[in-house]
Amino acid sequence: MKIGVLTLLEQLNYGGVLQAFALQEVLNEQGYQAEVIRFWHSPGNVFLYGRLRQKGYNRLRRLLRLAYYSLKRNYMLSDDSRRRRTINFIENTIKHSTREYRSYEELTELSRDYDTIIVGSDQVWNPNLEESRYYLLDGILENINKIAYAVSFGTTYFPEECRRQYKRPLSKFKAISCRECSGCEFVNSLLGNDASLWVVDPVLLLAKEKWWSMARYSGKAENYTLCYWLGDLTDLSNILNSLPDTQRVYVCLNGMEQDELISGHLTQQIDELKLSERAKLCLGGGPLDFIRLMAHADSIISDSFHAMIFSYIFEKKVSIYLASCGIRKAMRGRMIEFANRCKMQDCISADISLNEPVCLPDYTRCAKFVEDWRRDSLEWLRKALDN
Questions:
Q1: What backbone torsions phi and psi does residue 369 show, to the nearest 5 degrees?
Q2: CB 120 within 8 A of CB 197
């Protein structure tokens, strides 16, 4: 059976790329022939046709500016940008389709190459994201199996318009599972009881040993706290200011390009973080750099769901903050849900001003829960594919 995995690669988010890697890896371990479908739906995407859009920097000038920022501003930069490293990870580490699909119309041709399409994981069905309409596969591919694994809606609010938009396309899926209970409840309200089941994020399907093998690092061991931040930099600044000046901190901001920084964008915001001499801003890293930073940190401070997941995998002291406003507030549910299920409630906080200390959960206890969920999730996936 040949399986195509359709997920949100285009945003090049660390968590999104790593969950895609994990799902295709697990499927192939289970004996299926699976690959991630390279689907770039934005007309101006920099990765269309398999090559990066060229920036307008003279290489020598670029290297000089990189050196300046590294020395004068205490930023840890690499000559490869985050995007370049991430696309290299997709190209070289993830088993992916040879063909690139660039429109909804081209997705109709997937039935020529695949027996089954798995949509997910990640926020593929988030009604607040315009691109979610592509992943509903509404009115197409009705002659092959369509399965949704660990999909996320990224919200708990489903107005009537959303219900009307989703009911028909979801009814065409052979099996649906979600990574949040609120998603299961929404699907079940549309399609009937037990139409959807809760399963774990694909990152948790992959054995810990695999993640550790990817985190191997030959460099010098260091003691540091990793701050991995997705949200408001003002909140991050408050957290950094609460840390001891003697504490070595690596700050990793997903989605921020070193090129944007070097060309003048976002410089003021970064400067307002007022990083101490013991802190370094890590820009330009790819998914493997992210894994290594997580694996070798003494402790982790973050507002990210996948940072929470990797804190469990690598058994780190951790403090997770929940966004209090904006679109990220709607995404808090999955973090609270995972913390409650794993008895990690002491590690999360909704109040940045409290400056909660990092805590070390009882990971032995957590592992007992996660292993049961992992087994049940794999069983659901096998049944959905084989029945």
A1: -65, -50
A2: no
Amino acid identity of 331? M
178 backbone dihedrals φ, ψ, rounded to 5°: -130, 155
> Is-cis flag, bond preceding 242, omega within 30?
no
State the pTM of this model: 0.88
Tokens representing 346 are 């002491």
Residue whose structure tokens are 């798995």: 118
Domains identified in the chain and CATH numbers: 2-49+86-206+370-386 (3.40.50.2000), 68-84+214-366 (3.40.50.2000)
- Rounded Cα distance between 31 and 366, Å, is 28
Q: Going by C-beta distance under 8 Å and a sequence separation of 6 or more, which residues neighbour residue 157?
A: 330
Please tell me the number of Cα atoms within 13 Å of 284 on its side-chain side.
Answer: 16
Coil, strand or helix: which one is 351?
Answer: coil
Each residue's pLDDT tens digit, 217-259: 877 778 999 999 988 888 888 888 888 888 899 999 875 544 5
Q: How many CA atoms lie within 13 A of 38 on its CB side?
A: 16
Q: What are the tokens at 5?
A: 């995995």
Compute the distance between CA of residue 86 and CA of residue 285 in angstroms, rounded to an integer.
Answer: 8
In angstroms, the CA 158 to CA 163 distance is 7
The torsion angles phi and psi of 36, rounded to 5 degrees, stand at: -85, 135
116 closest CA partner among 93, 137, 144, 85: 144
Strand pairing partners for 279?
A: 249
